[in-house]
Structures are given as structure tokens and as C-alpha cells.
Write a structure and sequence with these properties.
Layout (H helix, E strand, L loop, with lengths): L2 H13 L11 H18 L6 H8 L4 E10 L19 E4 L8 E5 L16 E6 L8 E8 L14 E9 L9
Parallel strand pairs: 1-5, 2-4
Antiparallel strand pairs: 1-6, 2-5, 3-4, 3-6
Length: 178
Amino acid sequence: MSTAAAVLALVWAMTFPVQPSADPVPYDQLIAAEAAAAAAASTATGTTLSAEQAEHMAADADWRLSARLYHAGGGGATGNDSLGCRPIAMRTVAIDPRVVPRRTRLFIKETVGLQLADGTIHDGYWYASDTGGAIKGNKIDLYTGHGRGSMRPVMPLNMSTLTVVEAGRFDGCPPAWG
């Protein structure tokens, strides 16, 4: 188990101790605990949040979206995204434009501090520049790069519900890492 996962599990266990006759946890309290756990996990990985990131971490979710993963090659994504741009690994997302407008810059709390295959630490920012036939309603498809192996760092997020905050809009194509 990675250090971040262990810290997250510890924070979760301390926040939500198992009690046989416990009352349900209020939604607001659950969201606050998830944000605290994500902040603790990013601290455990050595990630220092900018003021903007800290603001997004503390913000209420604009959307709660069910995550899927997609990659280039082997029946995955090919060519350009729906804006005509080359998809950027770990930056491009496909969304239903009736739910999340295209060209929206997104902050996904669960991806902050995530260590990617090349050792880069994810800052939580993604770009809604793609759509997909299977992306209907409150779903989000995270583009991971080329080949199935590119999914490894984010596989724990597959089929989970992500906390997504609107972080602005963008023009042109999503920026590359760097």
C-alpha cells in the first residue's frame, strides 16, 4: 500500500470510526471529511497546495461525476478530441456537454497529489475538451495516455464518484504538462 493510501485510510478510519449503531453521517460532514482526507493525502505525498488549489479543495463540488478511464491505442481513443485538439494525457477529460460545458477547466480533488507513471505529481487540473458516445449524464472520462499501462496510476479512481469544481474556462487546446 502506498504512503498516500495508508494516510488516507488512517484519516478515513479516524473520521468515520465503525460504530455498530451509528447514525447516518450528514452529507455536508461527509464532504468535509473527504476534503480533509484529500488534503492530508496531498500533504503526505509532499505536495504543497497553491492558494488557488487550497480554495478549490475547500469549495463545494459543482459536480459529483462517475469516473471512467480511456486511453489511446487498442480500441481506445484515436485522433483528436471533440475540439480538434490532440488529447493530453492526465489533462483531457470527456464529458456530457449538457452537464459540464466544453472548454471548462476542472479541478478534481481526488487527483491532487496523485503520483503519475513518470514521477510527476498531479495538480488536480483537467480540461473538458472531449465528448463521447458513452458519456451521458453525470459521467467523466479521464484520458490517461497511450496504452492500457497508462491507466495504472488512476485505476483506483475508475468507477468512483469524483468531486469536481469548476476552475474557470479555457480557449484553444488544453495545455500540455510543463
